[in-house]
Amino acid sequence: MLARLGVFILWLIHFLPFRVIVAIGNGLGSVLYLLAVERRRVGLINLKLCMPEMGEAARRQLLRDHFKMFSRGLIERSILWWASAERIRSLIRVEGVEHFDAIKDKPAILLTPHFVGMDAGGQWVAQHTDTVCMYARQKNRYLTELLLQKRARFRNQYLYSRQEGCVPFSRVCARACRSSIRRTRIRA
Length: 188
Prior knowledge:
The chain is mostly helical. The chain contains 9 helices and 2 strands.
């Protein structure tokens, strides 16, 4: 029930102007930075290990900014899930799109780091080409089904759970490559 309430609130948020959505995300991130004591502690330890040359104040600021960006990504998902394709395109800026265009109709593997902007990039790609993707099942079945529905709302998106292993994912990728090779041979 709590998940459905959260989704309803996200749905309402998507109607707001983008600058208001950004402010909500930043505010939520600031609150989470204060309340998520264990996550903050782990984040600071990781930053200290990875960036020992960075001062303590700078690491704290970096982590605070990350909490804001993470929360913005969560709140901005409301746009990605319910807004029109036109609104989404108007908010996403892609640099180096010529590299994507060069491989768009060919089999390719896009490796995506799991950062806060991953879903925005995924929605952009999904509006431009068919994809085969892996996802992680959520603990809540309703959220897993919603995530699948919203990530696959543009073009032909084939989503496979990482919990199923790589075999189903690999088979679809191999079929797509063989199909593309056949089309290339026929055109030649």
